[in-house]
Amino acid sequence: MREPRRPLPPRRPLLLLLLSLLFFSVPETAAAPPRTSGRDGGGVASITWMAWPMKCTWLPLPTCGKSHSYDLVSKYHKIWKDTKDAVPAKDVFRKEPISGAIALKGSMKYFDADFFNDSKLREMEDGAKEFNVPAFRDNRKLVALENGGLNNPSALVFKSSWSDESKISEKKSFEYPHTSSVHRPSKDEDIAFMSIIELVELIRTKQVTSRELTDVFLKRLKRYGPVIESVITVTDDLAYKQAKEADDLLEQGKYLGPLHGIPYGLKDIIAVPEYKTTWGSRTFENQVLDIEASVYKRLKSTGAVLVAKLVTGSLAYDDIWFGGRTRNPWNIEEFSTGSSAGPAASTSAGMVPFAIGSETAGSITYPAARCGVTALRPTFGTVARTGVMSISESLDKLGPFCRSAIDCAVVLDAIRGKDAGDPSSREVPIEDPFHIDITQVTVGYLDSAEMEVVYVLSAKGVKLVPFKLNYTVESVQSILNITMDVDMLAHFDNWQREQHDDDFEAQDQWPVELRRARLIPAVDYLQAQRARGKLIKEVKESFTVDAFIGNVTDWELVCLGNLVGMPVAVVPTGFKNVENPPKGSTRRRTTVTTGIYAPPDHDHIALALAMAYQSVTDHHKQRPPIDDLGPGDNIQH
Ligand SMILES: *[C@@H]1O[C@H](CO)[C@@H](O)[C@H](O)[C@H]1NC(C)=O
Ligand SMILES: *[C@@H]1O[C@H](CO)[C@@H](O)[C@H](O)[C@H]1NC(C)=O
Ligand SMILES: *[C@@H]1O[C@H](CO)[C@@H](O)[C@H](O)[C@H]1NC(C)=O
Ligand SMILES: *[C@@H]1O[C@H](CO)[C@@H](O)[C@H](O)[C@H]1NC(C)=O
């Protein structure tokens, strides 16, 4: 709550209020929740003011009579007359000891804790002023003056590992397959839709330089970016510098591995020095963070080439950002969903070979499914988030958007690992997905699984059984809400206090949720974490298979998977006709997708199964009709 430094309200409203008290026919609606966050209605003074007439509705009827009200009115009127010369409202009401407690009493309803009697409330009020508020202010000054970022991470560290012993595993790189006899296609568009391991083979055999590849993708970013609205910053200078380094190294006979010279994009919540890191938000549109995010550092050291900072929905929510709204390349008249809107749409449209996005609750799975790309939401903690905008320290994860599960494995191998700046990151003991014998694996399928995947994997020798997760925790979605919203508000406390939320791009999204988060007591936040512990235990006990196949956009499963920290591979499995097709023939399609879920630390199982499925199907290789534009759109030449 802001400082109550408002002078007394002007005389007329006061008199009106007095009159309404005199007749004490205050309707129930007058006792509506006090405004605490309007532009000019904030502060304790106005809350007390509005709470005042509510008194009658709380008192037993006999005492709520005319004479009582009249006494009150005379008393307040006198206080007002005595003190109206520039005395802050707060001090006037301090003379009437009950008034503050009444305001608190009104508020306690929204904490679901309205069982304190008046003397207890008074005591609480004094205690809060004396002890709580100074502590809040001290802590805020200490750690919360900056918005976002993983600064001052909480000591409450979430471990998604299910194993008891602390395995000290030497990180061994995956042995990914080499593709032989790859030939450079004549058309740039065919190059743009090649997989990473095909592209790097072209580079390694010197059929193409990194600079040439960079040119191909920069051209596409500039051509399609404005139509798809999926690009925030094209990083030309940096890209050409990194491409030159990659080409020079190869000239010297130094080959860094499967990402050598490969262009890619980063969701714009990931900091790269000298370029804007906008978080997709109007408030931070011009922000430059002089930080090398650890995921960027790792990609740089593998020789990859950053070509663009891609759209994140504003403050990593949905697909609306300060410059527009990202569209689905498979159907331009539809939006991409979010919040990794740019990574999903840009990978889908062949504007980058791969991109890094993030998920707190659905931000990888939803846009990957909508845009028909293969993606991995890894086990929580696999990829360090140093230098990345923070929503929830126990939920946020970074992951790859690619053309295939093989590429996802290659990128994951490059970006995984502990970083000192992110206490939740760890060396997750993921095995080599290219060396899994899937015939030894038992896979469950939910009712919502795409059956084609079930049949294909079955034909490949995987054991498939019908499956259902069994858990008693009912409020999976509300646990997610409480955790995510309170954590987010902690990272954007100052942003809300300074009322930047009034400028947020979609008022019904973060602003509403984060105001609501103000009324979540710490006790209940921790109770939600206890409920989350129970959920994890039950899911672990009922996870009797090695992996399961199910709907990847089902909200309950999205919340559950994220609360548990469970990995999921997003796999395109086909197409449907669009609902309202444009006149004439159209190549626009609705993508169909499924999820392959594995227990934490078993990303290799999900990836191996996705690779097995993709080895005999080609849904993931289809190209979206990005030249089939919506009305009023045109493409830059
Ligand atoms: C509130 O409850 C406490 C403890 O039961 C009691 O001592 C006190 O008198 C009560 N105050 C009022 C105003 O009822
Ligand atoms: C589901 O879990 C409950 C409670 O743990 C247990 O009683 C029940 O037997 C389980 N059901 C199945 C099908 O495993
Ligand atoms: C979680 O928050 C979203 C967004 O405000 C809301 O639509 C949804 O109803 C909430 N769910 C629960 C269970 O609180
Ligand atoms: C997956 O879940 C989404 C969201 O609930 C729903 O629209 C879709 O129809 C589901 N798909 C299947 C195959 O159940």
Automatic annotation (TrEMBL):
Example GO molecular function: glutaminyl-tRNA synthase (glutamine-hydrolyzing) activity
Classify the source by domain of life: Eukaryota
Amidase domain span: 212-544
Determine if Signal is one of this entry's keywords. Answer: yes
Annotated signal sequence range: 1-31
Which InterPro entries does UniProt cross-reference here?
Amidase, Amidase_dom, AS_sf
User: Entry's Gene3D superfamilies?
Assistant: Amidase signature (AS) domain
Q: Which UniProt keywords apply?
A: Signal
Record-given protein name: Amidase domain-containing protein
What organism is listed for this UniProt entry? Oryza meyeriana var. granulata
